[in-house]
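During the no-cost extension, the postdoctoral fellow (Dr. R.K.) reprocessed legacy sequence entries with the updated structure-token encoder. One reprocessed record is reproduced below for audit purposes.
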Amino acid sequence: MTRRSLAVFLSLIVLLVFTACGDSNKTMKQDAMVHSENDPIVIASARDVGRGNKDPYWTNLNLYVWEPLIGENDAGEIIPVLAVSWKRSDDAKKWTFELRKGVKFTDGTLFTSDVVVKNFERWKKISPASSTFFTLDINKTYPDFLQINALSDYSFELIFDKPIPMLPYAMLNWGSPMVSPLCFDEDSGIFNKPVVGTGQFKIVEHQPNAFTMLERNDDYWGVKAKTKYIKIRMIPEHDTRIAALRSGEIQGVYDNKAIQPLACKELEKQGFHISSKLSANIHYLQVNNGKFPFNDVRMKQAISLAVDRETLLNQVYGGYGKLSNNVLSPFSQFHYDTMVPRDIKRAKELAAEVLKGKTIDISLITVEQYSVDAQLIAENLKEIGLNIHIEIMDYPSQKERRKSGQYDMVISFRGMDNANPETMLYSFMGKDGKDNLNYGLNFSDDEISELLDILNKTYEEENRNELYKKIQILSSEKLPIITLFGVDTTVASSPEIEGYEAKWTGVTLFDTHWKK
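Re-encoded structure tokens follow.
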């Protein structure tokens, strides 16, 4: 594909996306309606947000049904939620927490340290528990955990066999979900009903693969939600979701990948509200580090310099994101900017050193969603002697190919499990890191391994921060993966509602209300 034909191809994709949104000259449905507080605001998601009793969380954190001990704001900073303060011992083997007082679950159960103990006991029983959100695994979040002790009604301590200096960053959000002991089986830890939490909403109805109805928790300990009912409908098809938004059948779209970025641009022209916020996710190109030519770092550097990230982000993703070549998401407060400009001249030089002037055939695996990305990347890499053959397959097939090592390149997507940067750095670059092993990266580097080992034995924050920086700089040179950009959370909503804004994860459901 020539550069001219690629431009035509991208233009056609844009046209198709806009066509899916409807006639651009046609405005949204404007039927005058007066809504009462009891009228549910209807939001559409591509998946069922009620994952059922076997999911360790039952539903998403960003529905504000259950809450963690520690949370995270849109700047990537940790914040108190159900735990109001915490401190560690000098050796970082003991952590003491103080809990928020006067908090109740929506079934009336008082939130105390005894409840925290029961939640930890539940995690022990079910770990590791897979989820479409994040795997719940007490052994990963709380490594070398020995015991939990309730010190009073509103304080508890965690004891570890080895130092764990970054514990609050590991246990935030998905790492410390607090649920009522009455909603799970005491013996198995499995849910016996929809999750019961302390959040701003409670689940009052769930129809699998259809909808989840949320009702405001009027006894919430903090600022109460502004609307009485929110209904989250499952509408799997993108075009159907957008048509429902334009017709007034729904008032907003929600969740990862619920709306194509370029569709947002057209909807914004038609008067819909678009909101975006940098998320903890990265979009990246994975190469088989154990296979020629990717076992030569110069080839990976050539690819990173050749890929036109700016065009990809702006023309395919509408500018909703932040350019990066770093394995650690730019959302992280520990992220160090290692980005360098595209340099096709240097990319050609590096590739020529490895390929000896030859052109080789390379397979690029992707799911249908990233087919446009693949076309653009293929055109870029053709300039450095890589003849890319694109294979479109479903995600399970792609995952199996990656795990078995039967691949050359893959386009992929990854979020941060928690706010501890060590988790993501080790997952991609550690010898037994989760992504390195489970997805066939085949990455190994003695210098990075040594720094990761030192990091594991370093407890002072200032020294750890310096190690984070060194590892990120090395990762941008050694390239275990080729990060393309950090991804925005992007949402769209009807003018019928207000307060519907993107957050680093999800939307501000608690602020959403009918426009008066």
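The two ends are 52 Å apart (CA to CA). The chain has a mean pLDDT of 92. The remaining legacy entries will be reprocessed before the final report is submitted.
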